[in-house]
């Protein structure tokens, strides 16, 4: 089920007020005789004291629907440096009572003198709980150990932060039961108990939970003892190894479980009783994956058990707590969906969290600066291990689509930063769990896994895990372990770079952007010049691992580095120095299987040689490199920087025979871009005819000749092919999507049996199907919307699909229904309304005129949104020149109203004369000025004469305005047929 983001946001909202109320609790202890304590600026804990062990006892009556809990935390601490304060974290905790005892200097387990001269204060902005002497001259001396005992109460939240709750409706009895669970990462352990809530402060945890005897408690470790006290039971767990606070976890529930023990590790799947049998495939996968990771790294899993718990609510899809992984239900359990891609996605999700048991749990980052070490390794090795266990599914192809493709394009959509990036506030810490930490880092790790030889790299990782187990690290610890393995294996004895692993890897972890390597062959003197530059203008340079395949040496299997380009702007080498043999007409490919995380650009002659090879026998060049050709050229095309558009279309020609989905995944984006640029020109019909010829064979294979055992990658790319085929007006595609959408909405067809691919591509199918519905069908769909329960997935599908209609009147009706002043469905607040309008504006060209019309009639409502000015200014970049006068009047009216109402005075509407107004459209005009004539001539030569002459005559009729009413209708019809399906381009 697809859930629109605005519905998700509304679900999140109810918990906010509760947190605001409970936030007052801890702050009640802020009275302090020392103002300097409360004015502390740093948000980091001092290193003066250190936790040696925790004894944590939590009591809950969640079975009664009671959301309060009580806790007792006993923390043994050591004074590392003399200080007059002990600082730890606590948040939203009440009734705090603290005692402090000096531990016996000989027997540290024996509590001694009770110190009655201490009190405590609270620093709200840092969530610091500070224990300090009443008198300023008293201090805690270095080397002393203390036992800190803190009793407190708290309140469970509705959102997965700290200790939270969720209701379950029992199907048979209709009785409501309650489950309590924890989410401690990244900074939420302080909501559960007072603690040193930073990853570098590792310690042992002895956990006790008192709960209803009708419920079961699980935590990081196996149960040590059960003490039944009538209606209540206290579950005591074995003491954990030393670990970070963000991994502390427990769940109290009436869940049932299935288990299997292998190699001394018991793994269990916990879920509600109705879902018990749906966890069997997850259990099988977990057992296989733990064993595979143990064998691959030569490091055993550290705990005696590993539980996997399926919850209705979880932060993200899953959380890697050591020994107790929590999941959203649909990310763990098989609900009868036969979709192969969904099954693999669940395996990858589970294997990501299992990989964390080594990367993050056994070895942890000393601070969130290095969160990429956790997430990058877990992401990459989840794919690698799954691929090893299921080679038939070609999971590393999915990595290229789901991870690498996004990592290559992240700078177009997100704020950039280095992988290694210091953060301090809670919000900034949360924000580093992003595409850079997951996807970019995984790609960089993959690059060095291949460059340094896979066995050598894994040997280095094994050294790293063994040396730093139960400890914390920074990136240099990782790099030095890899360096040691490279020197041990002596695979690069003559290479000076083999002693510079720190420098090499730092050039990647401390850079913000992505390199472009230009490969310029000098055909007269047999040299190659390599130039590197940032994808943006910032002066950054990298150590870049290069390897080569060529017409005379066409093997793409060996992906280790053959030459490390130093961090220089330009470097020229002879073919002899590179150990290459090339004739002038031979092709050369750099970056085999795109294992390196960089773009490659070639001179035009080399591209023509590659195009000739593709047309003769495209399988000689590896499928991933065929895909990379188009991915690497895409930024050049989009910035109007490509040297020759003819060579781009020469590369396209072979696609008629391309049966692999990897190249199509990349080509679809470039075709979409060209579709936008050529729309409405005399070349457009020729272009669509050409692309229809290319896409027809692969479309028919995927949608009319379906293989029940098709690869998961085929399922994944199916949406791209469908969108491209429908945009190009392929009759089979238009008929298929219209039929499927009508069957689903009006006949309530069971897609699981009749359209098994629905679960992967239903968004695209329904969008395309609705985009071609007539007025009668649109009206019928609106009536159906009114009659549908808004809490169902079916309602979501209707709402989301209606955005794809291309009729101006239908779009206005839809916007008024959804976000207008008298909206029938108040699904979004003002901020979300603007986000949604901006999304539709950028994804549906046919909607742009309707959206300006809608804003013109509803700006008094919309401009109250805090993000109105930003998104209004962004949309202005797409403004056609012909609408500039309308835009000027609209802008003036909005500005006057905002001043009258004093709305967001610090935000300024874009100036009508700003270069940003119409910027995207000017880019299109520049593209057409530069390339349309070339494309037109190329297509005329390529298409059969009868077809090209007929299409050319039709396009001229539109272009010169002859028979004007007909030509205008034709243009309008083209808009309706071609505009939808464009992905977001910010």
TrEMBL record:
Annotated site residues (Transition state stabilizer) in this chain: 438
- Signal peptide range equals 1-17
Keyword ATP-binding included in the entry's annotation: no
One biological process term from GO is: proteolysis
Kindly give the membrane topology term recorded for this protein.
Answer: Lipid-anchor; GPI-anchor; Single-pass type II membrane protein
Q: What is its EC number?
A: 3.4.11.-
Specify the Aminopeptidase N-like N-terminal domain's residue ranges.
51-247
Q: Where does Zn(2+) bind?
A: 352, 356, 375
Where does this protein reside within or beyond the cell?
Answer: Cell membrane; Membrane
Q: How cofactor binds (record note)? A: Binds 1 zinc ion per subunit.
Could you tell me which residue ranges the Peptidase M1 membrane alanine aminopeptidase domain spans? Answer: 282-506
In which broad location class does this protein mainly occur, judging by the first location in its UniProt entry? membrane
Asked if the record carries the keyword Zinc, the reply is yes
User: Where does the ERAP1-like C-terminal domain start and stop, copy by copy?
Assistant: 587-863
Keywords on this record? Answer: Aminopeptidase, Glycoprotein, GPI-anchor, Hydrolase, Lipoprotein, Membrane, Metal-binding, Metalloprotease, Protease, Signal, Signal-anchor, Transmembrane, Transmembrane helix, Zinc
Tell me the active site.
Answer: 353
Required co-factors: Zn(2+)
GO MF annotation list: aminopeptidase activity; metallopeptidase activity; zinc ion binding
One term under GO cellular component: side of membrane
The similarity comment for this entry is:
Belongs to the peptidase M1 family.
Q: What is this protein called?
A: Aminopeptidase
Q: Which gene encodes it?
A: Dgri\GH19250
